[in-house]
Amino acid sequence: QVQLVESGGGLVQPGGSLRLSCTASGSIMTSTMGWYRQAPGKERELVAIITTTGSTIYADSVKGRFTICRDNAKKEVSLQMNSLRPEDTADYYCNQRRSSGTNYWGQGTQVTVSS
Known about the structure:
The protein contains no helices and 11 strands. By secondary structure, the protein is mainly beta. A hairpin with a 5-residue loop joins β9 (about 90-95) and β10. The mean pLDDT is about 95.
């Protein structure tokens, strides 16, 4: 059973930074890894993904502010979030999509941007 464990969420003021981490129980080497978020009353949306070759895709709303990285040796994917805005407030979920197409999700970590 694949497990993804997120950490790093919390309360931050507008303009601040947070770094989210996600550690997988198994190898991520052949998986596309990603971060999604879900705000109250809204659908879950893509934040950023990183492929096995290191290519990245970002939601327009976070481009230039967020950076996704992966460390296959540590089985970890991270999301550095800078210049945070109140509209970034959401539960953030780590996603692992294997080459077979199977998706795995973490339990989520809460990010609140508020003064």
